[in-house]
Amino acid sequence: MKPIPYGRQNITQEDIQAVVETLTSDFLTQGPKITEFEQRFAEYIGVKYALAVSNGTAALHLCAMAMNVNENSRVIVTPITFAASANCVRYCNGQVFFADINPKSFLIDIEKIRDLLQKHPKGYFHGIIPVDFAGNAVNLEQLRKLADEYGCWIIEDACHAPGGYFIDSKGNKQHCGNCNFTDLAIFSFHPVKHIACGEGGMITTNDEKLYQRLLKLRTHGITKDPTLLIKNDGGWYYEMQELGYNYRLTDFQAALGTSQLQRADKELARRRQIAKKYADAFAGKPHIIGQSGFVEGHAYHLYIIEVDRRKELYDFLRTKNIFAQVLYIPVHTLPYYQNLGFNEGDFPVAETYYQHCLALPMYPTLTEEEQDFVIEKVKEVVK
């Protein structure tokens, strides 16, 4: 059996052709493919504005800047996520606070957020960064109501969840990143994500002022827009109006992303099919606990199980060329955050999850034979 990773990009001949056409065009960066990718992505998600950037971390950083995070800002984040979800606050010298996760969904627990907010006067906290972990959509309608009560903005980290959704109180599908209940949302186009650009990210919003500011921040804080200039010396003239960064995406990466976007729904359907097979295979197995089962609206970037002998299973699967992965180490237990005053034991649900979690192979080109092999080998150890 050839190696079976936990995630893998799917590059087709159409993808390659799209990149080649762009490489032989007049633009390699800041060209028309960027605008095309942004417009098509905005249509796919159902949002007014989309802004392509160099990666998901850059997207988070720019969002934190756009929300004016500074040394006086206090922001609530989940401990079960990649470190960038919290790091973006620290890049702006803000203060990170964590709220524990729900043991069934693995998402930040809204009631734990409520508990944290209630322990402090209104206005103490400034923002919340929920994560659609593994592709499971946070109920942002509920979170928005709570955030409004305490005066907090929301940045949705939807890196795992393009195409994911939750059902709102009126029975409507609310797609991840549509910003109907958030100020901003971000996505990643890392190779193992739903849409691969090699590296890349996207910010979405329905707020024109935030969008205009993000346009500047993405390119050194510089603008050439005549309506925004303080003065105008001519067609060449530009102004750096605040300190920004070079967080642009290239045209050939955008061409790859646009090509991949055309089959996003098809590949998402395949992910859900794989998840359903895992769910059926492990149903009624008390020794495999906490698996996500099959959840409506889940985008299934990951399929997570929890087992008692996780390291034994992890090591055994590797001997069979199955490269399952542990995602994630709780952020508050990483040395940098422990140096900020966090300790093991602070968020017991997240830590218990980490002791047992394992992400099984999940990507659209995973074959039936490969998945059967993974299921068989998991059951050999966990019984």
Structure explained in plain terms:
With 383 residues, the chain is α/β, with parallel strands linked by helices. It has two domains: 4-261, Type I PLP-dependent aspartate aminotransferase-like (Major domain) (Aspartate Aminotransferase, domain 2); 264-381, Aspartate Aminotransferase, domain 1, CATH 3.90.1150. Helices cover 37% and strands 15% of the residues. It contains 13 helices and 16 strands. The chain has helices at residues 13-23, 32-45, 56-66, 84-91, 110-118, 140-149, 208-218, 251-261, 264-282, 310-319, 335-338, 348-356, 368-381; strands at 4-5, 49-53, 74-77, 95-98, 127-129, 153-157, 165-167, 173-175, 184-188, 201-205, 222-223, 239-240, 288-289, 303-307, 322-323, 357-360. It has a seven-stranded mixed β-sheet with strand order 2-10-9-6-5-3-4, with helices on both faces. Strands 13-14-16 form a three-stranded antiparallel β-sheet. Strand 3, helix 4 (84-91) and strand 4 (95-98) form a beta-alpha-beta unit. Helix 1 (13-23) packs antiparallel against helix 8 (251-261). It is globular. The mean pLDDT is 97.
